Amino acid sequence: MMSAYDELMAFQRETEALAQIAGRLGWDQETMMPRGAAEQRGEEMAAIEGVLHARRTDPRLADWLEEAEPEDDEAQAQLRLIRRSYDRATKIPAELAQALARVTSTAQGIWAEARAAENVADFLPTLAEVIDLKREEAAALAQGGDLYDALMDDYEPGATAEIAAAMFDRMRPRLVRLREAVLAAPAPAPLNHHFGENAQLRFARDLAARFGYDFTRGRLDLAVHPFSSGSANDVRITTRVVETDPFNCFYSTIHEVGHACYELGIDPDYLFTPLGAGVSMGVHESQSRIYENQLGRSPAFTGWMFRQMLDRFGDFGVTSPEDFARIVNRVQPGFIRTEADEVHYNLHVMMRFDLERALIRGDLQVGDLEAAWNDRFLADFGVAVDRPANGMLQDVHWSCGLFGYFPTYTMGNVYAGCLHQALRAAVPDLDAQLAQGELGAATGWLRENVQRHGGLYTPGAVIAKACGFEPTEAPLLDYLDAKFGALYGL
């Protein structure tokens, strides 16, 4: 007879497989699905969410969890994650889970159309519905506690808004000082050249492969908002193309490759188990950000990239690898978070954190969100938002119901700063390798020390084990000061 643990894991395997199918539907919706299918897809997503919710709240789970006897640390971790999922799922009524799946599925299409039309009013009724449902979900999960903490815990277990706010308060003064110093220095001119879509995508594919992306287990497509989707042997990435700004495509690709390589690098024995996915969005973001920034935007790697672009695009108006590095790392108070330089990026996240926390608390009404966004952006960045697609309509997250997600971006940057410090100690000739376009040692170290563990350890533990110290924002801030101080002669 099968043990309680074996029965539990067999049941969980099917649940995980069904969740992957739901994820594939989401990928299709963002890349291939015809626009007219949005309402039907919402019903499909609601149906599969109903099946998943029923499995995640199946009363047998409680019995198996009570009876299961873990034989090792891996089994103990599996039980910890299944129990966490069960405890959260049983607090949420099935009708609410299905309603959220249905509304957020259709909301993404409404958001995309409103963004294209530059019409906030077209999105607000749906956003209000999403927020009402998320508050209801948060209340069910919090059971009298802080609503935002309950939502945030879904993406970064153990983190709270208070912890995030305190860290942001410590970071903001140094980021603002660095920004002011950099913006007072002479700025490099942006690129002024046309870079064809097909040529960009060819180089993007080559970059993805160089950073370790396995195209036999994935694919690269176009999307309005780049993302990565899937796990194990089917991990897909997307990018976007702006023919006057190739860095948009190249660094979106590298960023999503970081996410994808995390999933691809997880121990294959964890397939279709709770350990077979990244442990948190913060740790996930640490991989995408270290691939994109500490590796991909390093002056050593951009020197190699400069030579590649000359070969592929011909003369594009930049005469030296040093000037190219400054252009790649150009600091400017732009509107778009995903295109923000490293100095400004976390300020974008902090703004969203404050706004969505106020929305969930009820301190900010949906009808006042655009004005609140525009006022805050002007105060934080010194630039007035010129159109909704550059303002509150730029991110897909709120249409997806991903409240509590934004702070994990900065947590991921903090983790990446810690990992970068440890990586440089472990690979002392890293710059020499990057200058040759060689990423194997760096990505191999990350795979061995972070990625292969999947969900085995808690978020803080996996970073601490990799780095040899508890995560702190200091390495990230020191890295930013050193890098941009050198680039801008501060």
Automatic annotation (TrEMBL):
State the reactions this protein catalyses. Answer: Release of a C-terminal amino acid with broad specificity, except for -Pro
Q: What class of enzyme is it?
A: hydrolase
Supply the EC number(s).
Answer: 3.4.17.19
Q: Identify the residues that bind Zn(2+).
A: H255, H259, E285
Q: Which cofactor does it need?
A: Zn(2+)
* List of catalytic residues: E256
Q: Which Pfam families match?
A: Peptidase_M32
Instruction: State the free-text cofactor note.
Output: Binds 1 zinc ion per subunit.
What keywords does the record list, in alphabetical order? Carboxypeptidase, Hydrolase, Metal-binding, Metalloprotease, Protease, Zinc
| PROSITE patterns cross-referenced by the UniProt entry | PEPTIDASE_M32 (PS52034)
One function term, GO molecular function aspect: metal ion binding
Q: What does this protein do?
A: Broad specificity carboxypetidase that releases amino acids sequentially from the C-terminus, including neutral, aromatic, polar and basic residues.
Annotated family? Belongs to the peptidase M32 family.
Q: Which PANTHER family match?
A: CARBOXYPEPTIDASE 1, METAL-DEPENDENT CARBOXYPEPTIDASE
State the protein's name.
Metal-dependent carboxypeptidase
Q: Which organism is it from?
A: Gemmobacter aquatilis
